[in-house]
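Open question from group meeting: does this chain pack into something compact, or does most of it stay loose? Before anyone orders reagents, we agreed to write out a predicted structure and look at it together. Recording both the input and the output here so the notebook holds the full record.
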Amino acid sequence: MERTNSLSPERTTRTNYATGENAARMKEALEAAHSQAHPNFKKIAANYGVSRKSLTQRYYGTISLNSSPGKKPYLSVQEEETLVKFLIETSGLGIGYDIKSFKILIQALLGKSGELLTDGWVHYFMKKHPEISMRRVEALDRLRSRTINEESLEFYFNLLQTAYDKVKLLSGGVDLAAERIYAMDESGFSLNMHSRYVIAEKGAKNAFTLTSNNREHVTIISYAAASGDSGRPYFITPRKVNNFLGDNFQGSKVNHSSSGYINDAIIDDWVDFFVQDIRALRGDRSLWCLLLVDGHASHTLNPKALIKLNEARILVLSLPSHSSSILQVHDLAIFGPLKTYYKSATSAYIRENGPQMTLSDLPKILQNAWFAANNPFNVKSGFRQAGIYPLDLEWISKNQNKIPILMIKSKESKFNVLSQKLSQKHNSHQLIKDLEPLNLSIEFPLTNKSGSEEITLKRRLSDILTKSKEMHQKDKQITYRKNILGENPSLPKILNEPERLKALSDKKNEIEDKKTEKESKKRKEAPSSQPNFGNDNEMEIEFGEINYFKPSFKRSKTNPVSFT
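C-alpha cells returned:
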C-alpha cells in the first residue's frame, strides 16, 4: 500500500538508507517497485519520500538495500559474501586468516598492492557481516586433525552403542542407568599457578602477581558418574609426603611416583580405590557398569588393572586418540572451572600467607575449588556435551563446528577423484564444477572484468581452497605405529573383553621374559669393573674400549720433573 509523504525526493544532502526510518521507507519503496511490472520510479520515490536514483540503483542491484552513501567500496556485495564464506571455510580447515594476512589477501586479490587497507576497514567488514568475528584459536597438531574426523567419530559412537548393548546383555537385560556410567581423567596442579588477570591501573604496562617458587606438581585422577555424582580424587605426588592431605579430602588416597605422573602401578592401585569408592553409588553389584578412559597406555595396555575391572563387572571403553577436547567429560565441563577456581584460591592464599608454599599446602588450597567445580550441574553437562548420557547418536550432525576438518565419509571417493584431477592439472573450470558435489558452502558469483581472461576473485579463491583440500587429502594417509597387540592406538576400543585380556596378558608376559633374559645376558657379558694395575711407574685402567695411561716421570738437576 502506497503512502504519500510531504518530504521532497530532491535532496541537497546524501541520505543514509542503511539504518533507521530511512531504511524502512526505502524497503517499502523497493517492495512497491517490485510489485509492478513497469515501475514508475519517480512517482514511487515521491510517495515514499526517498531518492529516485537510490531507489533505481537498489532495484537493479547496482548497490545493496543497506548500502551507505560515501566512497565506492572496495568489494561488491557479491564479492563480500564470497569472502565471508571463504573465511568460514578456511577457518574450518584450520588455515584461517588473522587481520594482517586478511588485508594482504584482499590487496593481492584486488591487485592494489600500493593501497594499504586499515584495521578499521577489517573491523567494519566484520561488523557488517555478523556471521564472522575474531575468535581465539586452539592449536591443532597434525595427528589430532587427522583423528578428529567424521569417520573416526562415527566409529566411536557406534562402539559406544555396542558397549551400552553389551552392558545390558551382561546385566540380564537391565538398561544401563546413569549411576553406572563413569568417566575418568587426570590433570596436573602446581603451586605456582595464578590468575591471568588482576585489577590494576589503567594503561599499566607491567602488571604482575607473586607466585610460589616451588615448582613441584601433583597429578590428580578424577572420576564422575552420569548421574551428576563426582568421586573422591586420587593424588599422585612426586615424592612421599607425610600427612599430605591433613584434614582435607576425607576418604581420598595419596600415592607417589618418581615423576609425579601416572604409570601402570599407579593405575593398578587406583582401580582398587575406584572399585571400592563406587560401591554405594552403583547399587546392585551384580549389574555391570561402563567406564570411559582416554587412550593412555597405562589405561589401555595394563592387563592387571583391566582384569580387576573385569572381575568387578566394569566394562572399559577408550576414547579416540587426541579427542579429549570434544569427547572427554572432565575437559568439557569440570577441569576448566576447576583450574580457574584453583588459581584464584592460590592467589588468595598468597595474599594472606605469603608465597612460601609446600606440597602439603596444595590440598587445603584446592579443596573448596574442587567441590565448587565438581557440582552435579557441571558433571551432567559434561556427559551431555560428550554425547555419552543420554546417548546421542546424532552427535556428529549436531556438532559439525567441532570437527575442524572437511572430511565427510560419504564424499571420500569423490575426494580421491578430485585429488587425481588436481595432480593431472585438470581444467580449472572443471575443478570448480567438481567441487560442487563435495557439499562445499561457497557458491562463487560469476564476475568478469571487461571481458578479459584475467583471473577473477572467484578463480583466485577457488585455487586457494582446492590447493588446501588437495594438501589435506594427501596428508590423510598417516600410518600409526601399532601397539603391542597390533592395534591402531588412535581408534577407540572395548579394553577388557576376555579375548583381548588373554592376548594382552600373554604379550606382557612374553615381553617381561625377553627383558629378563636380555638383562641376564647383559650381566654375564659385562666386563669386570676392577681396574688392572701395571708396575709402579705405569698404570692402565680399562673402561670398555677406552684406555687411560699414567705417564712415568723422573727427576734431574736441570729439570726438576721431566716426563717420558
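Observations to bring back to the group:
Residues 73 and 389 are 51 Å apart (CA to CA).
The first helix runs from residue 20 to 34.
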